[in-house]
């Protein structure tokens, strides 16, 4: 600007000089001048607070108090993590697009605290401020369950083919294959109804998040008959239209199998059937836990679930290593998910005090029998159960479970168990194999007679103790163990029969009377 002024002054002198000298009158001031453009001030946001609280079920959040010293027209815009949940009017009123629900928060963190940034502009300059809106609970609607339990009517159509019958309990779909009885699917759905209902300790926010996610992730519990290998033709998309669609587009874990006369002998008990339903329902439900709660991350090494599981493993209360072959090496991520999922099932079953009733002997995989024992030995599991599970799931109760009837369970009191021998996968020597499982833990039912057929070179016998030192030909030998013979009939041709009565000890062990380390444990159930 200074160079421009110098040029202007020189030009003015020259002009005056050319006009000066005799005639024309001069002027003592130059004509014209240069003005300045008025400055523009940015608008200001003058709210006295950046944090607002709003009761659920209303849309207005707060009003932006903005001013512009130049009197320009202002416009407003929103950004931030939760801005998509709001609109702002031309006068600065910030409103929810949909009235918020305290029990079903839609903010990014699902904690009922919405974060946004408001910008106000006069067309040239702008100002921004961040705000939080906390949605509070309106207790007048707390006892209203907005989710729907199964109504007791099985729907029979091809909506979820190849599952030709289904029930929906609180957004969890339960589908049965054609050979599954209506009564069994009904039992499964009724148990789900009880587990997913709300009660006086329900955490509505967590429960609503779970049940909404059932719908979002298409949670589906598959129900079949006997087991996978019993199907001929095999269960696949070629033989069962829609098979791949359900497996690919729905959140599925494993099957609940209806026990029949073709099921493994030790599964043909009411307790075993109930436990199978509870286990696999919990597998499916906790799959959605993993998608709903940060405390439940299966693959997060610092999640509450994984920390609780590690405490159980380190304390020798949970040992999943013998159940999944070399999966830990071939697919370590899948292995981590599976053992965390299985731990969650044991923790919940034990927290409900149902473990000792329906799965009393799961050693060495899980050795805790009661909720009080879990509280003492596994405080992290106890806390997780109390803080998360207890507010979302409901104990279906022993009284209800025992009241159920299962029409497909065999009624015969005679049960045949085939025993083979194979090299020990987990050590040296040979072991007994039952239902393709080495040293399988068995459950025998009072009132039934069991016939074990076994190689004659490996006579199967029973004992009440597992701590004896085996001595060839003499049972458990001299260290406290002894052969149990009450109600037992043996032969030299490879057959051992035991009649289980109310006087039979609740815990037995089967072993080879000639070779050590071959057998496993037996739980006697009423």
Automatic annotation (TrEMBL):
Gene Ontology annotations of biological process type: homophilic cell adhesion via plasma membrane adhesion molecules
Signal peptide residues on this chain, from the entry's feature table: none
Comp. bias regions, Polar residues: 36-50, 462-471
Low complexity: bias regions: 481-490
One Gene Ontology term, aspect cellular component: membrane
InterPro entries in UniProt: Cadherin-like_dom (IPR002126), Cadherin-like_sf (IPR015919), Cupredoxin (IPR008972)
Record-annotated Cadherin domain positions: 46-147
Disordered: region residues: 27-50, 461-490
GO molecular function: calcium ion binding
Tree of life domain: Bacteria
UniProt protein name: Cadherin domain-containing protein
Organism: SAR86 cluster bacterium
């Amino acid at each position: 600007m200074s160079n421009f002024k110098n040029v202007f002054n020189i030009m003015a002198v020259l002009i005056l000089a050319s006009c000066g000298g005799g005639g024309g009158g001069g002027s003592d001031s130059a004509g014209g001048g240069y003005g300045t453009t008025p400055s523009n001030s940015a608008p200001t946001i003058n709210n006295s607070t950046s944090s607002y609280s709003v009761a659920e079920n209303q849309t207005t959040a707060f009003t932006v108090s903005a001013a512009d010293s130049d009197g320009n027209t202002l416009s407003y815009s929103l950004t931030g993590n939760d801005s998509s949940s709001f609109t702002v009017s031309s006068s600065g009123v910030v409103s929810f697009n949909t009235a918020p629900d305290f029990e079903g928060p839609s903010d990014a963190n699902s904690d009922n605290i919405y974060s946004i940034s408001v910008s106000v502009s006069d067309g040239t300059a702008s100002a921004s401020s961040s705000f939080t809106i906390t949605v509070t609970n309106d207790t007048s609607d707390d006892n209203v369950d907005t989710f729907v339990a199964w109504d007791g009517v099985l729907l029979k159509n091809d909506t979820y083919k190849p599952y030709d019958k289904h029930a929906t309990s609180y957004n969890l779909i339960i589908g049965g294959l054609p050979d599954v009885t209506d009564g069994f699917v009904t039992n499964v759905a009724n148990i789900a109804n009880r587990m997913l209902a709300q009660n006086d300790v329900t955490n509505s926010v967590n429960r609503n998040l779970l049940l909404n996610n059932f719908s979002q992730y298409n949670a589906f519990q598959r129900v079949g008959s006997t087991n996978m290998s019993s199907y001929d033709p095999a269960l696949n998309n070629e033989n069962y239209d829609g098979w791949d669609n359900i497996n690919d587009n729905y959140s599925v874990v494993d099957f609940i199998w209806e026990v029949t006369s073709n099921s493994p002998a030790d599964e043909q008990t009411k307790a075993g059937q109930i436990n199978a339903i509870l286990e696999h329902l919990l597998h499916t439900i906790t799959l959605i836990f993993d998608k709903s709660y940060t405390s439940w991350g299966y693959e997060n090494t610092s999640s509450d679930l994984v920390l609780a599981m590690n405490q159980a493993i380190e304390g020798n209360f949970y040992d999943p290593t013998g159940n999944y072959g070399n999966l830990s090496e071939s697919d370590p991520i899948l292995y981590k998910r599976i053992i965390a999922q299985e731990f969650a099932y044991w923790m919940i079953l034990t927290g409900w005090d149902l473990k000792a009733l329906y799965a009393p002997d799961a050693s060495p995989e899980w050795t805790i029998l009661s909720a009080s024992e879990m509280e003492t030995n596994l405080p992290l599991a106890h806390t997780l159960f109390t803080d998360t599970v207890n507010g979302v799931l409901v104990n279906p109760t022993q009284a209800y479970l025992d009241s159920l009837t299962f029409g497909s369970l065999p009624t015969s009191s005679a049960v045949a168990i085939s025993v083979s021998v194979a090299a020990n996968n987990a050590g040296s020597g040979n072991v007994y194999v039952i239902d393709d499982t080495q040293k399988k833990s068995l459950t025998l039912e009072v009132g039934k007679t069991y016939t074990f057929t076994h190689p004659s070179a490996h006579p199967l016998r029973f004992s009440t103790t597992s701590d004896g030192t085996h001595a060839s030909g003499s049972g458990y030998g001299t260290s406290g163990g002894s052969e149990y013979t009450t109600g037992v009939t043996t032969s030299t041709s490879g057959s051992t029969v035991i009649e289980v009565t109310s006087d039979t000890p609740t815990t037995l062990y089967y072993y080879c009377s000639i070779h050590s380390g071959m057998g496993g444990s037996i739980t006697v159930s009423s």
